[in-house]
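Good morning C.,

I know you're traveling, so I'll keep this short. The sequence:
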Amino acid sequence: MVTLKLQGDNTALTHACRGNDFTTVSILLSAGAHPNVCNKAGQTPLLLAVRKNNMAIVRELVNARVDVDHMYQNGLSSLMLCCVEGNSEMANLLLEAQADTDLQQSSTGYTALMFACKGGHLDTVIGHMEHGANSAIKNQEGMTASDVASVNEFPDLCAVINLMGPPPTVMQDEIIEHPDTPLMKEAVDEVIKRFHAQMDHVPVISIYDSDKQVALRVPKQHFKRHIKLFNLN
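The tokens, ready to paste straight into the viewer:
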């Protein structure tokens, strides 16, 4: 009875999520309400909670083993929607729930990472790369996430993807030169800051900043080759 469909194929859980009613959501899920039921508009409780930016309800649905990778009528997953809107906090919650970073929208071939790159959402891009998003996937136009960032004039995102992505087929000690731009330095500093707390606990490699005349230690599992950065002003 708790999953009984009403007008428009909505359920009590659907209505509770739309109304941001956490208490009712929790009660319904505890009573066995199905978290993945779609209404006629193709909306699930998770989609409604994500659109309402209700972290508590999303966590409750995740704990009830909701399908975080459900694709809606527009070909978007909940993670993709977060990336379109630049909602990095919600995106990270879904990533922690093992949302698939590499699903592609059927009409465009875009991944969640590509949507984040298109909108210039740095935190969301970093979160995806931390969770192993495949930056080499191509959309229907033959573009990778880095290409999408470049076309939309976000060189800082290109830098993050290149630094955190899989290494190219080169010698480990190859020197990678980056353009001397404030955006590039900002991107590198942001990545380093994210991993600063881990630096004493994992194998590291060095990034050399010739402007500061210092070598910065960075976890090897994210920066898989020696890199030197020149003239980062």
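Safe travels,
E.
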